[in-house]
Amino acid sequence: MTLEAFFTPRSVAVIGASTKPQKLGHAVLANLVNGGFLNETRRVYPINPKAETILGLQAYPSVLDVPDAIDLAVIVIPYPHVPDALRTCGEKGIPAAIVISAGFREAGREGLEREMELVSIAHQYGLRLIGPNCLGVIDTVTPLNASFSAGMPPGGPMAFMSQSGALGTAILDWAQAGRLGLSKFVSLGNKADVSEVDLLQVWAEDPDVRVILIYTEGLPDGQAFIRTARRVSEKKPIVAVKSGVTKAGSRAVSSHTGSLAGSEQAYHAAFLQARVLRAQSMQDLFDQALAFGYLPPLRGDRVAIVTNAGGPGILATDALERAGLSLARFQPECIRELEQFLPDAASAANPVDVLGDARADRYRFALERVVADPGVDAVLVILTPQAMTEIVETAQAVAEVAARVPIPVLTCFMGEARVGAGIEVLERYNVPNFPHPERAAGALQAMSRYRRYRAEPEPEYESFQVDQAAVRAVFDRTLAEGRVTIGDAEARAILQAYGLEIPPSELASNPEEAVEIANGMGYPVVLKVASPDILHKTDVGGVKVGLQNAGDVRDAFDLITYRAQRYLPEARLWGCLVQKMVPPGLEVLIGMNRDPQFGPLVTFALGGIYVEILKDAAFRIAPFSRREAQAMLGEIRAKALLEGVRGQPPVDQQALVEALLRIGQLVLDFPEIIELDINPYVVYEQGQGGIAIDMRLVLKPASRSLDAHSLPPAEGSVP
Amino acid sequence: MTLEAFFTPRSVAVIGASTKPQKLGHAVLANLVNGGFLNETRRVYPINPKAETILGLQAYPSVLDVPDAIDLAVIVIPYPHVPDALRTCGEKGIPAAIVISAGFREAGREGLEREMELVSIAHQYGLRLIGPNCLGVIDTVTPLNASFSAGMPPGGPMAFMSQSGALGTAILDWAQAGRLGLSKFVSLGNKADVSEVDLLQVWAEDPDVRVILIYTEGLPDGQAFIRTARRVSEKKPIVAVKSGVTKAGSRAVSSHTGSLAGSEQAYHAAFLQARVLRAQSMQDLFDQALAFGYLPPLRGDRVAIVTNAGGPGILATDALERAGLSLARFQPECIRELEQFLPDAASAANPVDVLGDARADRYRFALERVVADPGVDAVLVILTPQAMTEIVETAQAVAEVAARVPIPVLTCFMGEARVGAGIEVLERYNVPNFPHPERAAGALQAMSRYRRYRAEPEPEYESFQVDQAAVRAVFDRTLAEGRVTIGDAEARAILQAYGLEIPPSELASNPEEAVEIANGMGYPVVLKVASPDILHKTDVGGVKVGLQNAGDVRDAFDLITYRAQRYLPEARLWGCLVQKMVPPGLEVLIGMNRDPQFGPLVTFALGGIYVEILKDAAFRIAPFSRREAQAMLGEIRAKALLEGVRGQPPVDQQALVEALLRIGQLVLDFPEIIELDINPYVVYEQGQGGIAIDMRLVLKPASRSLDAHSLPPAEGSVP
Q1: DSSP secondary structure letters along B86-119
Q2: Do A312 and B170 touch (CB under 8 A)?
Q3: Of the candidates B281, B414, B613, which has its C-beta nearest A641's C-beta?
Q4: Is the N end or the C end of chain A the one with fewer CB atoms within 10 Å?
Q5: What single DSSP character describes residue B63?
């Protein structure tokens, strides 16, 4: 069912419409009446059993008493009565309801139960629900103000959805002061039914929306969000602030991956994959909103600066460089013409310094000449209020030029007392103005990122021929034995089933068997303790490398089993894994950690010190494409090691990409895997592939529910 | 000579005072007259040979015609006449002059010569000079407006010095809109005489200045700036924006240190050592200025949040955490009392959520209770404009409480249209308000940093017993031979002279000599090519390690000399250095690069991959204290390697500190060293010291001047 009844209803009932001006139920009704919604064909019905009329409108005791069809109900009554009211809406056949009332999930267990009741009523009647515990919905195009906001914001190209109603009030207050123009505003509240994902789908198709803004504290259906946002971002930019970036910490983790991959990393990866532009603050969100809302798309990263002051020009240059943009290099004709027109002391190179005594005509000339240079993708006009500066006239000139060119022109008029009049002109003509060059650079950086997002091909998810049954067999056996951890000895079968190279190895239950196996595979070999209860083998002295002969193997076997028993007397010991020692290569880590909101968060990191000390890692949420896996390799700080340094050949990046993709498939095929570490995966030079040396894996206990929030602490961790 | 005549003159002459309102010379005079300067005892003298009176004041043809003494001259005449005018000022005995006229250093070589002429006139007459090419000087306390600004800014606790006059106009425009209150404003212009250093000294003693703000594009006398700023920062905070953070790039560099240590690193180190708070943008500067200007000092990092909305509370929590501050934990009584007074649904823990329906009284109660908790060092009050919110009354309540408590109370009133009235109240009472929690957190972060700066002891510079003569002898010989580079073989004497441990080694001119030396010192040994023309020995295969016997040494000697000749036929070959092979340890790099503005910039980095790929390095400008050297070790990202990881013992940090201090002394003692690399320096576990394995050093050519700007590209670099 579409959500159009929330934005373009023909009739709205306010359940709890009040005669008392201080009540929210009155404010909602007043907003509907004063917000311009009513016309010849549109109706508003106050629902109040005790009133005859409210604000001149006939009141009804119940929606069932309203003679006509109702498209939208707004519910503003004490929480105990909300379920009944919603049920009545269902009976009336109302397709959409906004529940403003609080007292639900946010108020504890009873509230949560009440909220679940709302959801089940909505499902029963096929009714869509926004809220509860929200501020309401505004559509400035309809126009519809079905909220208790203080008045109607000015119209504009931005659509805003906020999980926080309070933040919504601040946003509307900024909008009313002229800082941004809104086409839609939705306070999502508890998101019992309608969520970010639903609104993205609707707003993607809405011609009145040029940019979608989101404030969220969490995205429960993370995978749907990624899929939807990526599709929508093809059409229009999505900018989001995610708050509550808490430390990982709360859940005990036993893997490297777990210690690296917290909720912050998951959101970072998710927004990248969803092509959502992440704002660092509400200020940053507004800055980006202005740019996307009012400017034509950026076609390249070459920015021209026109300024009447050197200092701010330098600040802007610094900021653009930091933001990854470049200063445009003008064509010779452009420089020549600028030189002819501008005074001698002016700079005709970029930044163009029109000098402190520039009046509006000089700004206009420089701007017109610069926008005509094909090497210029955007122009930042900077103004400081010097003695001769014509502030308002310059604003006018900039606005006129900006309106007729196909590239973004933005401004940085610095100051307030005198400069304010110029800023008002710019705002009137929808020229985005920023008080400081750094913020203009930030907005351009977002536009540039969106340009690159748009240029990315649609991700294609590959599917490898694998042997799911073999993996299932290992898991079944493990869980049947009451275990949830799988170490090296058992993991081999899993890796093999998913097509990853592993070193030849075999389980030996006594020293003589180990020698026999080693003789068969050839020296040197490695011995590793094989026990379902020991995951961190090196910590208990459970690994011996570089064994050269039968004597070494015998000694190592005895030493390893002796130590393992001493450290963990209760551990089940299967013996030792004898493994052919692989040639040295670059050690990397490939891991996965199941995020409560987004699911399988796959990690790539360099091994050893890099991951342990520098936390140098890259993340993606499965599924991801080959291109995205390749991008992960480029996101680590020490990526030069993959490309070859100091005469070393580059490593086999394709082997790494392939391994990442296959692990991505494994963790999607088996949602019961909650943690996984391949550490190390040794990669060789280009064309030589790589080998998964060691793996550990943690399963969700068979008895537990699938709710990721109740994941058990990973077991089997050895202190 | 003090600079008081610039701020509190009794008489001011305006040379170039004009009758025409559109002229700067008129604007300056008008500002003096309208800015409130004139009273019974103060005089302003327009100097204009063609006018009788201007703005009602009697004009004089020359300062020499003025019957009384003149304390300050403001010169606003075309540049060709400025030198003569300044000379006349000198003859008149005027102690201070502001040269507003442009057309000097900024206008090319002739202009530079004209500026040098001004400086020499000033020296001749003992006259101090601000400018040329500036906006002028404002003192709102005197009050004195000796500038062509558009009016007088409101008074306040901030003093601002700006290298850019244009930026100054923007700052004054923001001030006039009520955003900040200025005690002093100085446009420094070309800084021919009076510089940042001078103003720091004056403002340190000025009771009307609580915070010093700087916009600078460069600090030519960097060492004086560090010394002065550090002293001044004991008394009051200094906040600076440095623009023009350009890429290193321009100068060819042949060392690792050179590729790491650009101007950006030098400024970073200098501001740390000078205890100057660096603002990332002008916006950041203003935010910090508000906090320092109007708030009591921060005594700890524990912040309480009082908010009427959950979302912004989370944003604030995130921002405080990112800024390195912590959320205060309230005492039980505090929580109990909050719980008693606040509604059930409110949160009495930090952040205190007073709920969306909070009126001013609830805010007041919560704030009063929270400031009384001894575990709270600062309070951030957040307000969103919800239906019941009493915006102005809440602002009033916050201002009243803030005024009488000894800890910083700052606000984040979010919104503008309705919230604006509340913000005005806050501004009236000097409660710093920030539109977004992130900016409030940024201001608190700066206060916290200043608190830590203040807690640092005064740095003590140690002086080691060294053998300067030995070093001088090496340099003299090198320069006498027409060389500027010094490699390993010669560097040994230098390191030894400055007390750094070096491995036993000796120069061998033929294979047999090498064997004899090796036999004497014991195996294993290392052979290194010894040539003044080969600095990057490994690049030409000039190093062989792990030589176990006489045969190895003979082979290595021949191989190294053959290869060196093949790669660089013109290189002078002295033979090979035979070096006792040292036990393995952690390899670090200690280097120095002479910065044009600040002088010796000393680098510390981990060796190998860390410095090459991760650019993981820390910097200080010599001289630095033992404490500062120790701090360098803690600034590298991979610092855990120094502390010992995975069972490794910690390294001998004291040995590293000592080596850094000794190198600091070396490069101060010998300004002719322009680059230096000790790479690797091998450090052992605690108590075991470290050894400088290899060093290279570049001297300034003897014939060149000392001007660091004209440093030659480092020579001897092997591609």
Answers
A1: HHHHHHHT--EEEE----SGGG-HHHHHHHHHHH
A2: yes
A3: B613
A4: C
A5: G
Domain total of chain A: 4
C-alpha distances out from residue A149 to A23, A563, B94, B384, B590, Å: 12, 69, 64, 12, 62
Q: Is residue B630 within 8 Å of B657, Cβ to Cβ? A: yes
Output the pLDDT for position A344.
Answer: 85
**Residue B420 in contact with partner chain A when CB distance is under 8 A:** yes
* Residue B344 near chain A (CB below 8 Å): no
pLDDT 10s digits, B638-691: 898 899 877 788 999 999 999 999 999 999 999 999 999 999 999 999 999 999
3-state secondary structure B178-232: CCCCEEEEEECCCCCCCCHHHHHHHHHCCCCCCEEEEEECCCCCHHHHHHHHHHH
ipTM: 0.89
CATH of the domain at A675: 3.30.470.20
Domain presence at residue A677: yes
Tokens representing A233? 């971002």
Range of the domain at A449: 298-455
Give the chain B residue nearest A308 (alpha carbons).
B166
Q: Is residue B274 in some structural domain?
A: no
Q: Tell me the CA distances in angstroms from A495 to A467, A473, A500, one per residue in order.
A: 10, 13, 5
Across-strand partners of B128?
B96
**Apex A604 CA angle, A600 and A607, nearest 5:** 135
Report the candidate in A337, A382, A378, A377 with the shortest Cα–Cα distance to residue A363. Answer: A382
Model pLDDT for residues B87-125, shown as the tens digit of each residue = 999 999 999 999 999 999 988 889 999 999 999 999 999
A282: Cβ contacts below 8 Å, ≥ 6 apart: A167, A170, A171, A215, A241, B315, B414, B436, B438
Are residues B434 and B332 part of one domain?
Answer: yes
Q: Which two tokens stand for residue B100?
A: 């507003």
Residue A696: both structure tokens together: 């550990």
CATH code of A478's domain? 3.30.1490.20
pLDDT in tens, A549-567: 999 999 999 999 888 888 8
Nearest-angstrom CA–CA distance, A446 and A297: 11
- Report which of A197, A252, A240 is spatially closest to residue A216, judged by C-alpha positions: A240
**CB of A414 within 8 Å of any CB in chain B?**
yes
Alpha-carbon distance of B194 to B122, in angstroms, equals 11
| CB-based contact B174 A612, cutoff 8 Å | no
DSSP structure class, residue A60: B
Interface list for B 24-63 with A (CB within 8 A): 24, 27
CB-CB contact of A664 with A629 (8 Å): yes
Distance between CA atoms of residues A274 and A293, nearest Å: 20
- Residue A519 domain-assigned (yes or no): yes
CB B162 within 8 A of CB A315: no
Unique residue bearing structure tokens 């052992």: B684
Mark whether A494 and A597 lie in a shared domain: no
Q: How far is B217 from chain A (nearest CA, A)?
A: 8
Buried b / exposed e over B319-333, threshold 16 CB at 10 Å, is bbeebebebbebeee
Reduce the DSSP state of residue A70 to 3 states and report it.
coil
DSSP state of B715: P
Distance CA B613, CA A589 (A): 19
Residues B424 and B519 in one domain: no
Looking at A512-557, which runs of residues are DSSP E strands? 525-530, 543-547
* Interface residue A340 vs chain B (CB under 8 A): no
Question: How many whole angstroms separate alpha carbon B10 and alpha carbon A404?
Answer: 56
CA distance B344 to chain A (A): 10
Of the candidates A414, A243, A305, the residue with the CA atom closest to the CA atom of residue B283: A414
Cα-atom radius of gyration of chain A, to the nearest Å? Answer: 32
